[in-house]
Structures are given as structure tokens and as C-alpha cells.
Specification:
single chain; alpha+beta; Elongation Factor Tu (Ef-tu), domain 3; six-stranded antiparallel beta barrel; four-stranded antiparallel sheet; 9 helices; elongated
Length: 377
């Protein structure tokens, strides 16, 4: 719609501009001043929890305009931060290597495992065998004595000369003595026979594991392990950065000073990703004028163009040419004769300020192009 208005306005002035160019007189081209606007919103969307501005409010860069609920994303940031801390701790541990006390503990464990293996492979000493035999003999003597006592009390009990309690006591004592003797015999047999092959194999495996762990601590982490830990740290940092960026999308902030032109949300609204606020800067104005092809040699980027408005009569303002279109546009066919329809117009964008509030968006402004000045350059 704006483009159509511009072309309709160009249709009115292009013929006059062409005639003025032929007569070497200043060319006047009219357009409409527009304010540069910025559409603001969230790339994620969510539920609106706070609206801090209203339409027409003036804001500066950094002002918070709208806040969306962010509890879920805040939790995601906390989780990502914890993962990063864990990854950094692991990397620091691998890079620093084992502590002295860790190496000492590993050395002690390896020594104990080695001694167990040596004992399993060598078998029991003669002193150990003698001690086991002595313990077995003592347990047998206690059992035999318990048997004799039980036999005597049993006869008395059967003749009603001993109580039931006494009979139960000596019976339990005999059972305990029998159990102690069996355990002593088993220990004696194990000492005499020595460790079994599977026990020796288990002792050797324990020693190998302890020795390997000690070597790993002494040599430090492998380079590939450090590289993998560093990559995991970098990935965790990237996840945290991504979570923080998503969290920042929950707060819509003004990127520049301006006026709130439109505000389409209220607290509680569910908004989709996209713009919800539009800002305009009354000091950042632009004017698009359409000139004929014959004038292209007289307009250059960076040149000053004199402007007048209906609201301020003959008072002159200045605009700077910011862009000259490289592609022409045809004037509307429904308003032009066949001869005029073949004429092309080119958009010329001028940048200007409000001149202290005198110029505003929506005003019609006329650009005065001095063709003679352009040719002299």
C-alpha cells in the first residue's frame, strides 16, 4: 500500500520533473516523510507476565518493554551451568594429574595385592600348619570332653536324677563343641593343602588391577582423554550459552530510543514467536522521492537536497541522499497516457532528522533538485 502511494505521487510529479529537466530549471519532487520503525518480539514466544510500557511512551535503549514467563528456561540455564561445572572439574583433574596422596594410596594397595598373591602362590608356612593342627587338636579335646559330660548327664536324666534344664545345657554345649571342631579341621585342611588355583588366579587379577591403576596415576591422563574432556567442556559451555540466549528472549528490550507506536499484548497472553511491539524513532526520518531517468546524472549518494513542507511554507530543511535505486519502476498504467507509461522512475531515499520536532512522519515534503549544481560537480 505504501509503495502504491509512492508511485501514485511519483506519477503526478514525474512529468513536471521531466519538463523541468528539459528547461534546465530546479526540479521539485514530492514524497511523504516516514519514520524508521523497529518491530520487536521474541524468537521463542511464551506467556506474557509483564507489560511495562504503553502506546505513545518514550523509551531509551535498554528499557524493558515486555517480559515473558521464564521459569523453565531459568531451570535449563541452571542445569547447563551445573553440567559445565562438572565438565570443567573433570578436565582440571585430568590436566593436573594425580595427587601425591592418591599415588601413595595406590602404591599401598598394590603392595597388599602383591603380598596376597605371593602368599597364595607360595602356600602356608610350617608354623601356620603347626598352629592349625594345634587348634584342631584343642577343639577335638573340647569336643571329646563335651561328649563325656553329655553321656553322663543323659544317664542321670533318664533315671530322673538330672533336670531337663541341665540336660539341655550339656546338649547345646556338645553341639557347639562339635561345630568348633569341624571349623578347626577345615582350617587345618586349607592350611595344609594351600590355596586353590582359582584363588591364586583371583589374587593375580587383583594385583594386576592395582598395578595398572598405580601406573595410570603415575603416568597421568592420556592425551586423548584430556582432549575428550576438553571437548566435553566446550560442548557444555555451548549448551550454557544457548540456554542463556533462549532465556534472554524472554525479555523484550528496546534496542534504541523511540516511541512505542503499537503494543498488541497484555499480561497472560500467549504469544507466538514474532513481533509484538513496534517502535518508531521521531529523529530518524526518511523521505523517498521518485525521479525520472533523465535526472540520474544529477543525484549522487551523500549529496544534500533542500526540502520544503506545506506545514512550514518556504522554510528550507536539508536531507542527505542515502540511496539511489539501481532498478527503475514504471508509473501506474491506470493514470498515465500511453506515451507517459513508458517513462521509468527511480527511488531516491533521503535521510533527515526532525529539525527540532518540526518534521514528523506523515508530512508531505518536496525535494528541490538543482540540476545546474549537479552538473557542475
Amino acid at each position: 500500500m505504501v509503495k502504491l502511494k509512492r508511485l501514485l505521487l511519483a506519477a503526478v510529479v514525474v512529468f513536471v520533473a521531466g519538463c523541468a529537466a528539459e528547461n534546465d530549471r530546479p526540479v521539485e519532487v514530492t514524497g511523504q516523510i516516514e519514520a524508521v520503525s523497529v518491530a520487536l518480539g521474541s524468537r521463542i514466544g511464551g506467556r506474557v507476565c509483564e507489560v511495562l510500557v504503553e502506546e505513545g511512551d518514550a523509551v531509551v535503549a535498554g528499557d524493558v518493554l515486555v517480559r515473558l514467563e521464564a521459569m523453565e528456561l531459568e531451570a535449563a540455564v541452571a542445569a547447563a551451568a551445573a553440567q559445565l561445572a562438572q565438565a570443567e572439574a573433570l578436565l582440571a583433574k585430568l590436566e593436573a594429574g594425580a595427587r601425591v596422596e592418591d599415588i601413595r594410596q595406590a602404591e599401598a594397595a598394590a603392595t597388599v595385592a602383591e603380598e596376597r598373591l605371593r602368599l597364595a602362590e607360595k602356600g602356608s608356612r610350617s608354623q601356620e600348619v603347626a598352629a592349625a593342627e594345634a587348634a584342631s587338636g584343642a577343639a577335638r579335646a573340647q569336643r571329646d570332653e563335651a561328649r563325656a559330660v553329655f553321656a553322663r548327664i543323659k544317664r542321670l536324666y533318664e533315671g530322673n536324677a538330672a533336670s531337663q534344664q541341665r540336660f539341655d545345657e550339656v546338649k547345646h554345649a556338645l553341639e557347639a563343641a562339635e561345630e568348633q571342631y569341624r571349623g578347626a579341621r577345615e582350617r587345618q585342611d586349607m592350611v595344609v593343602e594351600g590355596a586353590r588355583s582359582e584363588e591364586i588366579a583371583m589374587a593375580r587379577a587383583d594385583f594386576d588391577r592395582a598395578a595398572a591403576f598405580l601406573d595410570e596415576l603415575r603416568n597421568g591422563a592420556r592425551s586423548e582423554d584430556v582432549a575428550a574432556a576438553r571437548a566435553a567442556r566446550d560442548a557444555a559451555q555451548a549448551n550454557l550459552d544457548r540456554a542463556r540466549v533462549a532465556l534472554a528472549e524472554m525479555t523484550i528490550v528496546a534496542p534504541r530510543a523511540g516511541i512505542v507506536e503499537s503494543m498488541d499484548v497484555h499480561p497472560g497472553d500467549l504469544v507466538s514467536p514474532g513481533a509484538v511491539v513496534r517502535l518508531v524513532d521521531p529523529e530518524d526520518l526518511e523521505l523517498v522521492l521518485y525521479v525520472g531517468a533523465g535526472m540520474l546524472g544529477h543525484v549522487r549518494v551523500g549529496e544534500q537536497v533542500s526540502l520544503t513542507t506545506d506545514a512550514h511554507g518556504d522554510r528550507r530543511f536539508e536531507g542527505t541522499i542515502a540511496r539511489v535505486a539501481s532498478k527503475g519502476e514504471f508509473t501506474p498504467r491506470n493514470l498515465q497516457t500511453k506515451e507517459e507509461r513508458v517513462q521509468q522512475v527511480f527511488a531516491v531515499k533521503l535521510k533527515l532528522d526532525s529539525a527540532g520536532g518540526l518534521l514528523r512522519a506523515g508530512m508531505a515534503a518536496t525535494g528541490h533538485f538543482d540540476l545546474n549544481a549537479g552538473m557542475s560537480q
